[in-house]
C-alpha cells in the first residue's frame, strides 16, 4: 500500500467556538500506480484530505501511513515524504516566483542538492512531460505565459523532483476549454507513461470520470462512494444526483432514459459506450416503442 488513512478526523480551530469538522472518519488505501479522481462540492473537505497525504496537515485523530510509515511519528523526515508525494496546489501560478522558467523548475532539484548537469537533465525531462519545448521556454519569464502554460510550468516544477505520487488540486480551475483539455491529457500521459500514482481533485464530474480508474466521492467531510466510475454510475447515479453532484452529460442521458422505463445500463462514460448499449438493446427498446404506439 502506498498511502493508508485509518479513522482520520480533522477539525479546524479545535475547541474554539467556530471549529469546523472538515474530515470525519476517513478510511482509505491508495495503491501504487492508481489513477484516482477525488470529487465533491466546494467545502466538502477535498483540499483538507489531500494535505494529509504528505503531512502538510496532521489528523486531529487517526493515522496516516506513507509506504507503511506513520508520518505523524516524531523523527519522520517530512521533506522526504514531500519528495515522494508531490502536491500541486490550486492556482499554483500564484506561487511562481523565479525569473526564468528554467530557474522555476530547477528550484526543487537545487534544494535536493543535485549537481548542475543533473538539475538541467531534470528540467529538460519535466518540460518534456508537460509538452513545452526546452529551447523555446527555458529562458523565458514565467510571467509571459498564458494561464494554461503557467499551470503546466507549475506542474513541471513538481515533476522535476520525480515524485512517486502526484496530487493535483483542481488543476483545471479557471482555464478555458483548450487549456483544460491540454493539462488533463498531459496528466493522463504522465500517469500512463511513467506509472506515477495520481490523485486528481475536481468538483466537476465531466471529464474526470472518463480518465480515472477509481472515483472517490466526498460529501460533508466523508467519503460516501469509492469505486470504478462505471460501477458508481451504474449503481449510485441516483445518490450522486441527490447530493447535487452531476453525472457526465452522456451518463445523465442514459439515466433519464432508464427512469422513463427503458431497461438500460447507466454505467457509461462516453458516447461510444452509450451507442453500444443502445444498439445492444435495440430489439428490446423497439418492442417497448411499439407497445407505446399502441396505447
Ligand atoms: N484554514 C482553514 N481554517 C478554518 N476552516 C477551514 C480552513 N480551510 C478549510 N476550512 C473549512 O473546512 C471545510 C473543508 O474545506 P476544504 O478542505 O477546503 O474543502 P474543498 O477543498 O472540498 O473545497 C470547509 O468548511 C472550509 O470552510
Ligand atoms: Mg479545495
* First-to-last CA distance: 58 Å
What's the order of the H and E elements?
EEEHEEHEHHHHEHEHEEHHHH
Structural class: alpha/beta
Low-confidence stretches: none
* Sheet with the most strands: spatial strand order: 6-7-8-3-9-10
CATH class descriptor name of the largest domain: Alpha Beta
Q: How large a portion of the residues is in β-strands, by DSSP E? A: 15-25%
The CATH level-2 architecture of the largest domain is identified as 3-Layer(aba) Sandwich
Largest sheet: 6 strands, mixed
Write out the distinct hetero groups bound to the structure. adenosine-5'-diphosphate, magnesium ion
Structure description:
43% of the residues lie in helices and 21% in strands. It is an alpha/beta fold and 295 residues long. The chain has two domains: 3-246, Rossmann fold; 248-295, no CATH class. The strands form two sheets. The chain has a six-stranded mixed beta sheet. A four-stranded antiparallel beta sheet has the order 2-1-4-5, with no helix packed on it. The longest helix is centred in the middle third of the chain and has 18 residues, at 177-194. The radius of gyration is 22 Å and the shape is globular. Bound molecules: adenosine-5'-diphosphate and magnesium ion. Adenosine-5'-diphosphate is lined by residues 12-13, 20, 22, 40, 42-48.
